[in-house]
């Protein structure tokens, strides 16, 4: 099965190092969201009853399309070519070409609603979401992380509104 072939890191996902990275991302999200919102790159907060369900649906839809669709398709297409592009000399952190290409496309897709610096800032987050998908083998992890960041950004934007 192709899923088993391309998402072979599930044991690494249970490692202490990966769990610490995941915890770090979870804890850092509100601070990063506050910083992003303070630079004026927040989310619209005019109607909370409309905005919050859209954040949930948006995070899930983006992860299904980009991680579950594009990243899997690229991994199938490029399996064996540029299989690993090391980001650091840490054995538990490696960047696949599928994740890198998906991350760049994901960041570029944010240009339609955000200025270039904000869209570019999406790239590292996208790479972490892609890594969490590859290592867990499940879409729920990147969906939850994406949702947590979106809700954190919405809350920071809401608290900073005039």
TrEMBL record:
<dbReference type="GO" id="GO:0080120">
    <property type="term" value="P:CAAX-box protein maturation"/>
</dbReference>
<dbReference type="Pfam" id="PF02517">
    <property type="entry name" value="Rce1-like"/>
</dbReference>
<dbReference type="GO" id="GO:0004175">
    <property type="term" value="F:endopeptidase activity"/>
</dbReference>
<protein>
    <submittedName>
        <fullName>CAAX amino terminal protease family</fullName>
    </submittedName>
</protein>
<keyword id="KW-0472">Membrane</keyword>
<dbReference type="InterPro" id="IPR003675">
    <property type="entry name" value="Rce1/LyrA-like_dom"/>
</dbReference>
<feature type="domain" description="CAAX prenyl protease 2/Lysostaphin resistance protein A-like">
    <location>
        <begin position="53"/>
        <end position="151"/>
    </location>
</feature>
<feature type="transmembrane region" description="Helical">
    <location>
        <begin position="52"/>
        <end position="70"/>
    </location>
</feature>
<keyword id="KW-0645">Protease</keyword>
<feature type="transmembrane region" description="Helical">
    <location>
        <begin position="118"/>
        <end position="136"/>
    </location>
</feature>
<feature type="transmembrane region" description="Helical">
    <location>
        <begin position="90"/>
        <end position="112"/>
    </location>
</feature>
<keyword id="KW-0378">Hydrolase</keyword>
<dbReference type="GO" id="GO:0006508">
    <property type="term" value="P:proteolysis"/>
</dbReference>
<keyword id="KW-0812">Transmembrane</keyword>
<feature type="transmembrane region" description="Helical">
    <location>
        <begin position="21"/>
        <end position="40"/>
    </location>
</feature>
<keyword id="KW-1133">Transmembrane helix</keyword>
């Amino acid at each position: 099965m192709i899923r088993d072939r391309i998402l072979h890191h599930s044991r690494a996902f249970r490692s202490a190092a990966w769990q610490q990275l995941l915890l770090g991302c979870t804890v850092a999200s509100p601070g990063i969201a506050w910083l992003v919102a303070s630079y004026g790159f927040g989310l619209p907060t005019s109607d909370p009853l409309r905005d919050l369900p859209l954040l949930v649906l948006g995070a899930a839809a983006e992860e299904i399309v980009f991680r579950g669709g594009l990243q899997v398709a690229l991994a199938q297409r490029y399996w064996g070519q540029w299989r690993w592009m090391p980001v650091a000399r840490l054995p538990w952190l490696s960047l696949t070409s599928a994740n890198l290409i998906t991350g760049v496309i994901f960041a570029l897709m944010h240009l339609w609603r955000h200025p270039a610096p904000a869209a570019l800032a999406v790239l590292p987050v996208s790479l972490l979401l892609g890594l969490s998908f590859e290592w867990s083998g499940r879409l729920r992890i990147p969906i939850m992380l994406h949702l947590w960041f979106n809700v954190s950004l919405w809350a920071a934007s809401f608290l900073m509104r005039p």
